Amino acid sequence: AGGGAGGRVAIYYTTKTYDGTIQAFSGRGKDGGQFGGAGTIFLKSDGQTYGNLTIDNNGNTGGNTTIDAVNTFASINISGAANVTIKNTNITVTKFHPITSATLTIDRANLTINDGNLTLDSSTLIFKANVTLTTQGNITASSSTITNNVKLNATNLLIKSTSTITNNANLTADNLYLQSSSTITNNGNLTIKTTYSTESTTI
User: Fold this and answer.
1) d(CA 48, CA 23)
2) Which of 66, 104, 65, 69 is nearest to 89 (CA)?
3) Can you tell me the distance from the alpha carbon of 65 to that of 63, in angstroms, rounded to the nearest whole number?
4) CB 108: neighbour CB atoms within 10 A?
5) Is residue 50 within 8 Å of residue 94, measured between CB atoms?
6) Taking a C-beta distance cutoff of 8 angstroms, is the pair 120, 101 a contact?
């Protein structure tokens, strides 16, 4: 049997004096079964227009955590082996913290990142179907995997060491940089507008 999900924590406050840990990790299933999906932690002060969302599963790979309600966030932080899907919704975020040791799938959704950067560190990013990504900055992958199944436009696509990108649809980038030990597999249409740079890579 699978484990229980981490649940949802939402804290609205005027003054935050608590410095301890706030966590919403999932539990493990019976007899060493699968962990559940990571819970969500939402913090918002009275002085904020939008709050901060954290999804962290404490390094335990488990079930899916789905974001399917239209929302705007000051920041989103996904880490700790969380498996997150943004699905059938519109999400706007000012700052998307680096996705660290986690998986993010975007499926039939619109994601707008106002500060312009989407970064992966030892993580997986899947653009599944009918996705609109609005960002004027970098998509950066370090020791990560990106799978693209949609029409995707990027300003700067930076694929750093031991990363892999698989393009199965239409991928356009103003600038593409592939660092050492990185790989691109192109099964669709790949268009680079201005600059292409490679360093010990496989395409």
Assistant:
1) 21
2) 69
3) 7
4) 15
5) yes
6) no
* Amino acid at site 201: T
Q: Using CB atoms within 10 A of its CB, is residue 28 exposed (0-12), middle (13-18) or buried (19+)? A: middle
Q: Per-residue pLDDT tens for 3-59?
A: 888 899 999 999 999 999 999 999 888 777 889 999 999 999 999 999 999 999 999
Q: 193-201 long-range contacts, Cβ below 8 Å, gap at least 24?
A: 201/159
Q: How many helices (H) and strands (E) does the chain have?
A: 0, 20
Contact 140, 119 (CB under 8 A): yes
pLDDT in tens, 74-125: 999 999 999 999 999 999 999 999 999 999 999 999 999 998 899 999 999 9
